[in-house]
Structure to design on (436 residues):
């Protein structure tokens, strides 16, 4: 934590000492209160009455860097910051690098195994091309085992349709909860095929025996597939909604959980939604009034709602008309989206766009206007208007490339302003962000 040193206050104090040689007890107490107020845990709310920008620090994670990926176990947060994988206790403040220093980390996921132990998976690379998937396990005291290579560098798995080719690059890892017990239990990883075509595949639980039996081929419309690779435009995301696994990045892909769990099929396929909203930025599952659907945010600032998933037509039949007319718009490029059902709002993170006036602008509250089961409009509130103190923090002008809810906190992942967190959305108070 960095204390705040205000040059104006210092000069004023020195002037008083030179002229009067003594400070009144009241002045000393006022100065002490101001200094201590600036040091309390780095929360933006304490600066609400200070008319200046202040660097806010709480924890010790690398700042002014890209936060590529996050995950959590029962006791720890994990974050890929810059080129390293770091972790801190959920009940503590200190981040510590846990990945090898001679390797670059790009993506992290955590699952709980059959022995109720948490396994941490990270994609590492020495040159950005030869990637490996490594695993470490938390013991009962929380210490990590040494990193074990799960998929090696340069030659991973045979391509089911062409045994002479290999899946040669790992592009992202994520965890999903197939057992519906609120604990991720299944690992998925996206991989690229060698050669010019660079066909993509999805591997399910590649850490288990015979992973080639659990390869799923991306099948798109003139598109070789997609990646869970962290990126600022936009990041890849995997999630479950209704009876489907979805992957969203440049496109939107789906496979039924029945097919995902079927071990009898030789080559399974994850298919592309034919016509999702153009310039896709982020997709978020929403459950409202016992209906589950998807909300898509675009890089042109629009929000769209999909058909309800339960009892709806097969997603393979969706077309452009299935999404209807956008129900909200803002002159911003949205690349991240998080639904907070208890608040009835979306958090929508912005990045820069080609339009000069559409520069990154932190995040917005988007409160949908609801008519029965339909979203008919949006009430927008910019982060700068949410709280005065937020406007003086670096987060308010950051590119927010990811928004996640983990361990009772909401996290904002940025492209070059580090990691931010807040517990306010779960306590019902006004947002107060901590710079990790």
């Amino acid at each position: 934590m960095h204390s705040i040193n205000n040059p104006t206050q210092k000069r004023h104090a020195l002037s008083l000492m030179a002229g009067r040689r003594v400070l009144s007890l009241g002045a000393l107490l006022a100065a002490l209160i101001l200094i201590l107020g600036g040091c309390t845990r780095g929360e933006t709310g304490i600066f609400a009455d200070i008319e200046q920008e202040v660097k806010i620090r709480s924890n010790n994670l690398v700042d002014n860097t890209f936060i590529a990926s996050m995950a959590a176990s029962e006791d720890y947060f994990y974050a890929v910051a810059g080129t390293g994988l770091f972790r801190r206790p959920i009940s503590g403040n200190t981040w510590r690098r846990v990945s090898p220093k001679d390797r670059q980390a790009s993506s992290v996921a955590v699952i709980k195994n059959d022995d109720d132990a948490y396994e941490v998976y990270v994609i590492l690379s020495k040159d950005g091309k030869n990637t490996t998937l490594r695993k470490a396990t938390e013991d009962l005291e929380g210490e990590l085992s040494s990193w074990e290579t799960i998929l090696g560098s340069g030659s991973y798995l045979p391509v089911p349709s062409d045994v002479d080719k290999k899946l040669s690059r790992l592009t992202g890892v994520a965890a999903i909860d197939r057992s519906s017990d609120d604990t991720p239990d299944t690992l998925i990883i996206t991989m690229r095929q060698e050669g010019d075509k660079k066909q993509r595949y999805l591997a399910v639980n590649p850490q288990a025996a015979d992973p080639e039996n659990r390869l799923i081929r991306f099948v798109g419309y003139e598109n070789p597939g997609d990646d869970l690779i962290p990126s600022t435009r936009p990041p890849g995301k995997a999630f479950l909604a209704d009876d489907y696994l979805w992957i969203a990045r440049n496109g939107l892909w789906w496979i039924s959980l029945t097919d995902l769990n079927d071990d009898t099929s030789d080559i399974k396929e994850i298919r592309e939604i034919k016509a999702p909203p153009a310039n896709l930025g982020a997709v978020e599952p929403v459950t409202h009034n016992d209906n589950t659907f998807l909300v898509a945010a675009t890089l042109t600032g629009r929000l769209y709602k999909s058909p309800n998933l339960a009892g709806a037509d097969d997603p393979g039949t969706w077309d452009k008309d299935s999404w209807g007319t956008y129900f909200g718009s803002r002159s911003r490029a949205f690349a991240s989206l998080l639904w907070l059902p208890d608040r009835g709002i979306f958090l929508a993170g912005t990045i820069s766009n080609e339009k000069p006036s559409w520069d990154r602008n932190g995040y917005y509250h988007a409160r949908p206007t609801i008519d029965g089961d339909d979203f008919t409009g949006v009430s927008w509130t910019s982060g700068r208007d949410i709280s005065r103190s937020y406007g003086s923090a670096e987060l308010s002008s950051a590119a927010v490339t990811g928004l996640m809810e983990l361990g009772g906190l909401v996290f904002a992942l940025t492209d070059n302003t580090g990691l931010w967190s807040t517990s306010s959305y779960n306590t019902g108070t006004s947002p107060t962000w901590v710079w990790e």
In short: The chain has three domains: 1-39, 56-65+273-436, 67-228. The longest strand covers residues 162-176.
